[in-house]
Amino acid sequence: MLKKFEYIKAKSFEEAVDLLSHYGDKAKLIAGGTDVMVAIKQGKITPEVLISIKNISEGSYIKVSEEELKIGAITTHRELEKNPHIQKLGALIDAVRQLGSVQIRNVATIGGNICNAAPSADTVPPLLVHDARLTIKGHNGLKTFPIEEFFLGPGKTVLSSDEVLTEIIIPLPRMSSASAYWKHSRRKGMDLAIIGVALWIDVIFEDVEKLKAVKNGEIEEQFEALERSAIYCKDVRLALGVAAPKPIRTHKAEEFLKGQRLSRRTLTEFGAIAASEAQPRDTFRGEAWYRREMIKVLPARLCLLCIYRLLDSFGGEA
Amino acid sequence: MKKRISFKLNGEDIQLEVEPYWTLLYTIREVLGLIGTKEGCGMGECGACTVIVDRKAVVSCIYPVLEVEGKEVWTIEGLNVGIEGGLHPIQRAFIEKGAVQCGFCTPGMIMSAKALLDENLDPTEEEIRDAICGNLCRCTGYVQIIKAIKEASRILKGV
Question: Considering Cα of A19, then A21, then A27, then A28, what sign does the dihedral take?
């Protein structure tokens, strides 16, 4: 049976903020609705009023300037997936392509994925490693802060009941950097991550010929080739989903890898430190020990993937 | 409190009084009596309720009906509107290639295929798989379904 609620369409973010403060706890914000409607059907939430921001025309856009990319919070995953600028952000496009199904991506918004604050939210680790900032609208106007400060725990964010996320700002990454997201799940489609790992790395290539030669080889061959190459990590950011009550950056692991030559030893240590920063739990998707083991190995593999992406983007001229 | 909405359904303008908490699926099946669209999981996971809204495949079981105001909705019943011979090429291809087993996922599967082919007349197998990734077939007849969508693409291209 359908649970009853009123449904009000806000025409602007100002109106949404006003409606939210008017209805208080009785209201729930809805955009694409792919999380909210399911939560209502499951009886997890029982709002009396849904305030829809889906139709706010100034809420859906992807704008690029010289320094940054701005994404309107109600831009759908499908719009992101097809956008050439987003396609250059490796980690984010990896995440967007693997989120739900076409039907879900056609309506689910990036702002919704962030605000639902699931530990498994696919877009969040990529946004963390791309140093994204969020713009929030409330009664006192707009404020912008790093996405890392947004999450408090599963389903919990710093948003107060009358605030709305309006924009995601991503600094354009340096040309010598690349990023990737690995969604570790049982099936390729329609699944939540057992563990999600996003990596952004800025490197200095001194000798990459041996690595180039095994581009299509086995992962072990690639690690062997890495030993005989000279690639240095200038800067790195690593983020994990489903590894803690909220998506996290692993700052200790990052600090360790900065300035290091990439090798089997340094990458193993990188993964081990990241695993020590995680606080995974046992769930039916995977046990904590398994998640920890995966966190140990996946960052190293993502490093290789990022290096190959960089080499591809240089067209082999590195 | 009921609200009045206008939208296009299968090519025809329609006006309707709806409760704000109705889903598009409920409205289509229980109010308008178009029962071609199926309800599977009711949670947006299985794709049996897939319809097309403004050229995009969506799961109607979690789609608030008020959001179709001013939009264009197509269900399986509208697929052969204006087509001579009664069936849309995708429907014919599904029959020809044995892509229908118990039939429950078929309307959703066909609507996902329609949205794909409307946008991309010549999809790769990978693109087909991606397009129906949100449509569960419990008979597991995916191979024939993929073949049928390829066949439909061939017919629609006029090759």
Answer: positive
